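User: Fold this one for me? It's Na(+)/H(+) antiporter subunit G.
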Amino acid sequence: MAWLDKAWVDTALETLTAFFLIAGALITFISSFGMVHLRDFYLRMHGPAKATTLGVGLILVACMFYFLLIERTFHIQLLLVTIFLLITAPISAHLLAKVALHQKLPSDISTTGAPSELREEDVGQEPDTPHPEDPGSGQRHSP
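Assistant: Here's what I get for Na(+)/H(+) antiporter subunit G.
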C-alpha cells in the first residue's frame, strides 16, 4: 500500500496527538472557569468532575499517540490510567453530592433544579445500640 508509508502515518499520528491534546486542554481550561464562577457547591462540583473525566482523559489519549509516534510502542499504563479516571471521577462526584445533601449545604436561590430535601427513606436511622463514648445516644425500645 503506497499511501500507507511512514511519513503519512507520522503525519496522521501528529495530527491526532495535537487534536486530542488541544481538546483536552481546552476542556480542562473551560471547566476550571466553571469551578471559579459558579455560585454554589452543587454547581461547582461539575467543573472538576468533567475536567478529570474528559479533559485529562483526552490528554492521556494524546500521550498514548505521542509515545506511539516517538517510541513506536504502545504504553498500556496510559490506557489503564484513563480507564481508572473514567471509572472513579463520576463515582467521587456522586459521593461528594450525597455528602453535601446529608450535610444540608445550602444551594443558591437562583439555581433552577435545586437539590430537594432528603426523603425519609434516604436518611439512615439511629442505631439501636448506644455509642461507647455517649451512653445516652441510640434509640431505646420500650418493652
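One thing worth pointing out: The mean pLDDT is 79.
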